[in-house]
Write a structure and sequence with these properties.
By secondary structure, the protein is an alpha+beta fold. The protein is built from twelve helices and eight strands. A hairpin with a 5-residue loop joins strand 5 and strand 6. Helix 1 packs antiparallel against helix 2, helix 4 crosses helix 5 and helix 5 packs across helix 8. The radius of gyration is 22 Å and the shape is globular. It starts with 5 loop residues before the first helix and ends with a strand.
């Protein structure tokens, strides 16, 4: 059996062989999708950016000089495609409250990241290339909802530098080449990005989630599901941290604190809706498809919720639109 090398595939792809180009790029698609998601905070935008990256790479293949690996070159193309999206004025705006029969309490704050979407754990691949030695973040931490949200608040160039340097571990000179700038510029952008991120994201010492898939995590999730499905406001409140955070993209309303989040849950439960939570995972965290019983007895998907755990308590509840259900392989309704 003849061994086909990356150089062989590159030569054939440059000659117009589409199958060779697919074989050359396919090993990197999962990690590139995650990279685009980190840059953009939206699965929809990330998928569009990934397709644009592949098209640009195919069209620009003759310009690839081989001074770096194909992987590094693809990251360069993807990063610059994402920067174009970040700079675009066409980003989606926040939406108005539209849950019938429920008037929300006054929000603690209004979120600035209205387009945020969850990322299915099923698309996270542990087999991708490990981060470089200069990486500062564990991969689980660097995909959490809190981390992704904070990234979207940074200037586009700072986001790119921080992800490439601190999450993926590329060297400063590699990043400078990707962004067509100087090492000094990269280092300056990284310093500013780190400072902003420290203020926006709780440190690991403040948030200590149980190990994914552990008995501890399963027990806390089971208690949360039982309380939520029963509409037991007091039981839900007992499971929340004192500074629990709730968000509902693409609506801008945000709530922080056990009392106000409990008040919000009480309004939902008081509406008389029977709720069922179907477990899944998103952004390395427990998540649920939310199904609401209707008058005819069916259960219709009304959203997707991702929770963040701190010890045996819930530190954050992030609720997303029902269109996210299909991304997680969940049906629009339950029998």
């Amino acid at each position: 059996m003849t061994l086909v090398t990356a150089d062989d595939l590159l030569t054939r792809a440059r000659a117009g062989d589409g199958d060779a180009f697919r074989d050359l790029t396919e090993p990197h698609l999962r990690e590139l999708r995650v990279h685009c998601y980190r840059m953009l905070g939206s699965m929809q935008d990330a998928e569009d950016a990934l397709q644009d990256t592949l098209l640009a790479a195919w069209q620009g293949l003759h310009g690839f000089e081989g001074r770096s690996s194909v992987r590094t070159w693809l990251y360069r193309v993807a990063t610059n495609r994402c920067l174009n999206v970040r700079r675009s004025a066409a980003r989606r705006k926040a939406e108005e409250w539209r849950i019938p029969g429920v008037t929300p309490p006054e929000p603690t704050s209004l979120g600035e990241v209205a387009w945020l979407e969850p990322f299915p754990d099923a698309l996270l691949d542990a087999s991708v290339a490990p981060p470089g030695p200069e990486s500062h973040y564990e991969q689980k931490e660097a995909i959490s909802i809190a981390f992704i949200t904070a990234l979207q608040l940074l200037p586009p160039r700072q986001v790119a530098v921080l992800i490439l340097r601190d999450v993926l571990g590329f060297h400063a000179d590699e990043v400078a080449d990707m962004l067509e700038t100087t090492v000094d510029s990269v280092n300056g952008a990284l310093k500013r990005a780190r400072s902003s991120l420290r203020r926006a994201v709780p440190s690991a010492a403040d948030i200590t989630p149980p190990i994914a898939g552990s008995r501890s995590e399963a027990d806390t999730v089971a208690r949360f599901v039982a309380a939520y499905e029963a509409g037991d406001v007091r039981a839900v409140i007992r499971l929340l941290t004192a500074d629990v955070f709730m968000s509902m993209p693409p609506m801008a309303l945000e709530y922080r604190g056990r009392e106000i989040v409990g008040e919000f849950c009480a309004l939902l439960f008081a509406s008389g809706r029977a709720i069922r939570l179907v477990p899944t995972r998103a952004n390395g965290q427990p998540a649920f498809g939310i199904y609401t019983r209707t008058a005819d007895g069916s259960a219709v998907g009304t959203g997707l919720m991702v929770i963040e755990l701190a010890g045996d308590r819930v530190a954050a509840m992030n609720r997303f639109e029902s269109r996210m259900l299909s991304l997680f392989g969940l049906p629009p309704a339950l029998d």
